[in-house]
Amino acid sequence: MPIHRHPIATPKGTEPLAHVPLDRELIARLKTSYRLVRENGLRLAEIFYAKLFASAPQLRPMFRTEPSVQAEKLIASLDAIVRNLESPEENAEMLAALGRRHAGYGAKPEHYDLVIELLVGSMQELLGSRADGRSLDDWRLALRLVSDQMIAAAGTADHTGRTGAARP
Prior knowledge:
It is a single chain. Helix content is 62%, strand content 0%. Helix 2 (43-55) packs across helix 3 (67-83). It is an all-alpha fold.
């Protein structure tokens, strides 16, 4: 069985995995399942933020924009991730910038696990019987890799989200 690289994974050019081909089947599964999510417009974001603020009300002050604007930002980020699945380097640049911005908003590494579970749970709720375990697992892993890249980039940002030495 051939080995393939996850489309969110971004090894550096000299690493052994840099020459491993992308997992095209996984890309197709992620795109197909996301297409089902996108059919419902911003409903995913509405479900997600309701779950997030119910589970962790202390995070609400981090969200300074109107809920509709925040929902659009979440969906735009997911749209970009899916659009760039075949271009991991572009996703890596976008995710690094997103991670630095989130650090500036006050996001901490420990917040990401909750976000992953609630976002996958929101997908499951939104899709109902159309959600399958494999697609949800695909998204859980993809979001873990997204989070890992955002967290790594946040470690190189100061408290304002600008790149620089990490503050203690």
